[in-house]
Design the sequence.
C-alpha cells in the first residue's frame, strides 16, 4: 500500500506595527497604484473585525472569534481610546543644545500586530489546534505581559489564524517589534537591515521552541521563497508588470470585440424593435377593427335576442290562447260526440223497431194466408227482435 505523504507543517508568526496615520510608501515599492500608504491603526482594527471597506480581500466573510482579551463589540471603542491616548503623548528632542517637548508624531507606531497561523488548511477545531492556541496564547502573554490586549481568530481565509494586538497606552511600540528593536540597537547604519532580519529570525526561533516544537511543527517551510537582491526583485517585478500589461491588453482586445458584438446585437435589436413596433401597430389596428366588428355583432346579437324573446313571449301567448280554444273545442266535440252517440242509439232503436214491425207484418201476412187456406194459426212473435 502506497502511503500518501502528508504536507509539511511549520510555524507562522509575523509582527507588524501601525501608526495613527499611515506612512507613505515610495512609488518603487508599491505593489498597487492605489496603495500609497501603509495601513493605519483604524484600518488594521477594521480589517480584524471584518469591516467591509477594509476586508475586500475576503470573499465570504465570517464573524471573527474573540480568543483573548476584548470582545469584538469592544474593538471600536478600544481603537478610539488608543488614538486619543496617542494624541496626548509627547516626546523630547534636542535643538541647539536645549531640550524641547513636542507632540508625538502621528506616524509614530503605537500598535503592534502579531499574526499566528495554524498550518492546517481546514477549519476543524481539533484538540491539536486547541493545544496550539493555548500554547500561542501563553507565549504571547509571556512576551508582552499586560500589554497584550486582544486576540481575534479568523476562519474565513485559507488558514485559521489569530491577530494579536499589543499597545503601550499610546507610546511607541518599535521596541516590542523584534526586527525594529534589533535594527534600532545596531549602531552601524549599513548593518541595520541584517540586524532587522536577525531579530525576526530569533523571534521565529523562540516561537518555534515554545509552540512549534511541542506540536512537532517545523520551524520554517521546506520550500521558502528565495531571497533576491533588490535589483533582481525589481526586474522580476518589472517582468510581472509586463506580463500583467500584456494580459490586460489581451483582455481589452477581448472586451472591445465583445463591445462590437454587443453593438451589432443592439443594432439588430433596434431594427427588430422597429419592425416589431410596425407589426404591433398593424396588429393593434386589426385588433381594433375586429373589436369593432365584435361590438357590432354583439349589438346585432343583442337585438336578435330581444326579437327572439319577443317572439317567444308572443308564442307563449298564442300557445295559451290556442290551448284555451282547443280545450273549449274539445268540450264542444265531446258534447257533440255524446249527442251523436245518443242519436246513433235512437237510430239503432228505430231501425230495430222498424225491423220488428216488418217481421210482425210479415208473420201476420203469412198467418192470414195460411189460415185462409185451412192451415194453422201461428201467432208466435218470440223471434221478432224488439
Sequence:
Amino acid at each position: 500500500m502506497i502511503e500518501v505523504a502528508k504536507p509539511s507543517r511549520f510555524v507562522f508568526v509575523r509582527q507588524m506595527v501601525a501608526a495613527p496615520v499611515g506612512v507613505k510608501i515610495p512609488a518603487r515599492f508599491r505593489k498597487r497604484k492605489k496603495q500609497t500608504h501603509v495601513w493605519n491603526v483604524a484600518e488594521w482594527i477594521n480589517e480584524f473585525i471584518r469591516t467591509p471597506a477594509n476586508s475586500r480581500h475576503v470573499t465570504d466573510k465570517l464573524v471573527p472569534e474573540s480568543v483573548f482579551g476584548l470582545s469584538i463589540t469592544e474593538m471600536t471603542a478600544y481603537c478610539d481610546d488608543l488614538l486619543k491616548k496617542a494624541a496626548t503623548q509627547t516626546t523630547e528632542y534636542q535643538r541647539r543644545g536645549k531640550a524641547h517637548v513636542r507632540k508625538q508624531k502621528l506616524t509614530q507606531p503605537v500598535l503592534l500586530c502579531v499574526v499566528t497561523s495554524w498550518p492546517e488548511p481546514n477549519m476543524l477545531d481539533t484538540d491539536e489546534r486547541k493545544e496550539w492556541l493555548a500554547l500561542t496564547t501563553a507565549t504571547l502573554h509571556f512576551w508582552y505581559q499586560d500589554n497584550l490586549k486582544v486576540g481575534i481568530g479568523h476562519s474565513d481565509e485559507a488558514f485559521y489564524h489569530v491577530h494579536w494586538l499589543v499597545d503601550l497606552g499610546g507610546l511607541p511600540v518599535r521596541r516590542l517589534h523584534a526586527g525594529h528593536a534589533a535594527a534600532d540597537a545596531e549602531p552601524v547604519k549599513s548593518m541595520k537591515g541584517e540586524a532587522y532580519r536577525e531579530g525576526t529570525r530569533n523571534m521565529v526561533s523562540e516561537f518555534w521552541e515554545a509552540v512549534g516544537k511541542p506540536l512537532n511543527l517545523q520551524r520554517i517551510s521546506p520550500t521558502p521563497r528565495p531571497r533576491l537582491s533588490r535589483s533582481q526583485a525589481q526586474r522580476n517585478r518589472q517582468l510581472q508588470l509586463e506580463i500583467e500589461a500584456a494580459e490586460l491588453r489581451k483582455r481589452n482586445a477581448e472586451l472591445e470585440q465583445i463591445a462590437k458584438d454587443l453593438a451589432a446585437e443592439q443594432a439588430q435589436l433596434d431594427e427588430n424593435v422597429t419592425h416589431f413596433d410596425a407589426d404591433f401597430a398593424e396588429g393593434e389596428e386589426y385588433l381594433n377593427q375586429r373589436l369593432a366588428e365584435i361590438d357590432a355583432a354583439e349589438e346585432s346579437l343583442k337585438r336578435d335576442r330581444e326579437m327572439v324573446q319577443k317572439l317567444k313571449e308572443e308564442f307563449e301567448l298564442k300557445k295559451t290562447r290556442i290551448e284555451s280554444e282547443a280545450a273549449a273545442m274539445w268540450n264542444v266535440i265531446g258534447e257533440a260526440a255524446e249527442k251523436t252517440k245518443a242519436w246513433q242509439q235512437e237510430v239503432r232503436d228505430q231501425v230495430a223497431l222498424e225491423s220488428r214491425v216488418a217481421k210482425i207484418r210479415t208473420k201476420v201476412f203469412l198467418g192470414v194466408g195460411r189460415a185462409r187456406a185451412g192451415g194453422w194459426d201461428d201467432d208466435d212473435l218470440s223471434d221478432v227482435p224488439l
Summary: The beta strands are 12-18, 65-69, 90-95, 98-103, 111-117, 148-154, 161-167. The mean pLDDT is 86. The first helix runs from residue 41 to 48.
